[in-house]
Amino acid sequence: MSIPNPLFLIILFTFFIFSQSAYSQNQSTSSSTSKFPWSPPDNRFLISNNSIFAAGFLLAGNTTNRYIFSVYYHNITPTTTIWSVNDNSPVNASSSLFITTSGELRLGDIPFSGNSSSPILSLKDDGSLSFGSWSSFQYPTNTIVPNQNITGKTLSVRNGAFQFDGTSLIYNGSYDAPTSYYQSPNAFMSFDDSGTVKLQNGASFITSDFGDKTLRRLKLDDNGNLRIYGFDSGSGQWNVVWQAVPELCTIKGSCKPNYICMYGETYDTTVCDCPPGFHRVSGLDGEE
Fold this sequence. Notes:
By secondary structure, the protein is mainly β. Helices cover 7% and strands 35% of the residues.
C-alpha cells in the first residue's frame, strides 16, 4: 500500500480546517445577536446558555420554501416549538428579520416587537425571546413553559377554533356561538420545574411526574385539550402528565354537527361517524 504524499495530507488538513471554520462562521450559536437582517438561507440560530432552547427559522409543515420564526427545544426530535411569531403566515426564503429605522423588529411585513434602543435579540435560559423591553412570554401562542406567567394570557390553536383564557377552554367554531367546555374553579397562574401548577386563591395541583427533574410544557393541543407534557429522556418521548379533559368526545367541536363522536384505538384519538340510517355526503359539514 502506497503512503500518501505528505504535501497532499497538509493540503487536505488545511482545507478541512478552513471548511469547518467557514461553516461555523455561517452559523450563530450564541444566545444573542445584533446581526440583521436575518434570512432563512443564513442558516443561523440562537441557543440559550443552558442549551435547552433554540430560536430561528423552521420549515413550515411539509413545505420546502416556507418558514416560521420560532423558539423550540434544542436537540429534541421531532422539533417541539414553544412560540412562533408567524405561525399563521409562513414567509419565503427572501424574507428577513430586520430592524426598522425607528427601532422596531419586524419579520417582513409582520410586526415583531415594539421600538427599542437596543439592537440585540436574546434567547434566555427560560425560553423567552427578548428585544429591549419586549418579551415573547408576553405574547404566548399555544404553549406555556415552567415559570412563565399565565395570568392574563390567552392560548390559541393555529386556526383559532380553541382558546384557553387561564380559566376556561373555549370553542370558537364556525357553526356555533363561543362555548366553554372546561372551567377551572381557580385561574391558572404558573407552573414550576417540579410539576406544581399554581392557581389563584392559593390553590394548586401537581402533575403525575411530580418531582422528576425533566422538561415540561403546558400546551393547548389542536384537538382542543389542555395538557401538560413531561419529557422522558430515556425514550425521547413527550408523555401526558396532566390533562384538563380526560373524555375527548366531551370537547366541543370534536365532531361537526350531526356526527357521533366515538373513541379511536388510542386515548388521544376520536372517530366521527354517522348515526344509524345516515351516510356521509361529500362536501357537507354534517350528515344526511
